[in-house]
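Problem: given the chain below (337 residues), write out its structure.
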Amino acid sequence: MTPMVKRRLFLALGLPLKLIAAPFAWIRDRIRRLARFFAEVPEDVPLTEAIGEAFESREALTATFAGLGEHIDALRRHLLRSVIALALTTAFSFAFAERLMLALAVPLGEGGPEQMLTLFRLTPDEALRLFTQLGTDGLSRTQVIEPTESVGVFMRVSLLSGVAFAMPWIVLELYLFIAPGLMPRSRLLLLLAIPAGSLLFIVGIAFTYFVLLPTAIPFLYNFMNFRAAWRPAAYFGFVTSLMFWIGMAFQMPLVVYALAAAGLVHARQLAAQWRLAVVVIAVIAAAITPTVDPVNMALVMLPMILLYGFSILGAAVAGAGRRRDLRRRAMKMEASP
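Solution.
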């Protein structure tokens, strides 16, 4: 048997073993990369020092702009993947967008705000029947006056649903973008932001639907005793915008925690500026609130103020973890020869 034949025979006999071992090797490589990702300590250089070093020489300035370009390119890739995920979830929402429109029209039905709370005391069949009746009555109170208005409403409701479904992936992409600049402990803790961000967004939508809309819709519909015949584009645009922005406002603790983990904000600063924070929250609540009465504005302000308090606690936890990691890193550098 010639050496060439022996080599081909050896390769033929070893091919099945390679095919069997390939998935395990892939899993092993991914586990190693994941372990390095959570154990890697970033280079901690203050922003002012980095800017100062960048202007010391042309080479340093070129390197700084090159690093900035890499960050912008990474952000572009993360945003592109987020947009693709949002497009897929929005297309998936087309299948039940009509039912979502029916649900969003429930507060507009006859006695809808008062009967929404009674749904929880009924049997599932009775609750579904009443829910459908309220939604149908609410849709009948709107009036389409443009040929493409119904299509626009359908797309807007599907987009809101798509954002809710894509939120885990969007938060994951945001996490992957900022995680390399965090300490290992903060990087691991911030991993919980993926389910927490989705949960907070859904809680914000639920708060809008069950608390804010039942108080705002009757006020707007019966104000000055005008005969109201709202356009679907105006009503659903108003509802979806309100749900989206309040859902995004509920992300405040996660955003503050990420900034504190990166060393950009501190819990003492947030606590010392609580008066300014209340003023800013009042301005945001006034912009988000659909009515001008103080009751609805207070309904938006109260959870945001509570979220700001939770943000201070999260910033304190993130700051303590960052300081601990920096001390350990300094001790290791001193111990190393």
